[in-house]
Design goal:
- The protein has seven helices and eleven strands.
- With 280 residues, it is α/β, with parallel strands linked by helices.
- 35% of the residues are buried.
């Protein structure tokens, strides 16, 4: 028997208006375990669900892309918004780092717990079986080292099946005070993702015995199960030159989100939505 109370109870009974004998799929968001249940009793503050059967775990489609959002620490309400919307979109994981320009110096354990609750609730609301994992780091360099190991320039076996994109919150001209600092060619995010999708599709054909890729597609080491895309977005005031250079040393490609200056939370949500729409 499963007992539902608190926010889960409110959502099930007050929002979805489920009644006794209704069948409900219960999900453990961070484990991806699903159960078919039936509502046995509804009390003022609690509902009892009888487990009928454990359902097969839903594996991601073959060749699906995992999208990781690496984001600078934002102010609480803004970070709440990003966690909620990233969960609704189906982001695989949130990697939160304390940027050199972050207005806060750390993410407290209480705030981490709140982000987990928000992401779980958003995932359930959207029918997603597994909420994004949430990881915290003291700096961008620490985050990149944990995710990728040594920088690409010194790594003996670069993980080129991992697409790595450094998202700027300002136009590529760099005219704004918060514009890109590193003087490298910057392309539009959707253009970079379309190129990646072409790479992924061609390499999947190779792994399944299909036609060879066209000559203009850059060869990548390929994992036939799941490609990984990492998006770096800075905090409210953006990244410093040192942070941008660090990301580039780890193989991140600078990309633009368009002709206007975006808030950090807008950039994070927009980049995640575009990546998921184009790569899944």
């Amino acid at each position: 028997m499963l007992f539902i109370d608190g926010d889960e109870y409110h959502h099930l009974i007050r929002v979805l208006r489920r009644q006794i004998d209704d069948e409900v799929i219960a999900i453990s968001p961070h484990q991806g375990i699903r159960f078919l249940t039936r509502i046995e009793a509804i009390n003022p503050n609690q509902a009892a669900l009888r487990v009928i059967a454990e359902l097969p775990k839903l594996d991601p489609p073959s060749g699906s892309t995992s999208v990781h959002l690496v984001i600078g620490l934002l102010q609480p309400k803004l970070l709440d918004l990003v966690a909620e919307k990233a969960s609704e979109l189906g982001v695989t994981a949130l990697h939160i780092f304390c940027g050199q320009k972050s207005k806060l110096s750390e993410l407290s354990s209480d705030r981490q717990a709140r982000l987990i609750r928000l992401s779980e609730a958003a995932a359930k609301q959207s029918g997603i079986q597994q909420a994004p994992a949430i990881h915290c780091y003291e700096s961008l360099v620490e985050a990149l080292a944990a995710l990728h190991g040594a920088p690409a320039s010194t790594s003996s076996s670069p993980q080129s099946s991992q697409a790595r994109l450094l998202c700027s919150i300002s136009p590529p001209s760099g005219d704004s005070a918060t514009g890109p600092i590193v003087p490298l060619p910057i392309v539009q995010l959707h253009q970079a993702l379309l190129e990646l999708r072409a790479n992924y599709q061609a390499l999947r054909e190779i792994s399944t015995g299909g036609d060879s890729p066209t000559p203009d597609i850059t060869p990548l080491q390929h994992s036939p199960q799941n490609d990984e895309t990492y998006l770096v977005v800075g905090p409210e005031s953006g990244l410093t030159k040192a942070e941008e250079e660090s990301a580039i040393s780890w193989g991140y490609r600078p990309v633009s989100l368009g002709p206007t200056v975006l808030r950090a939370e807008t950039a994070a949500i927009a980049a995640s939505a575009i990546a998921i729409a184009l790569l899944r």
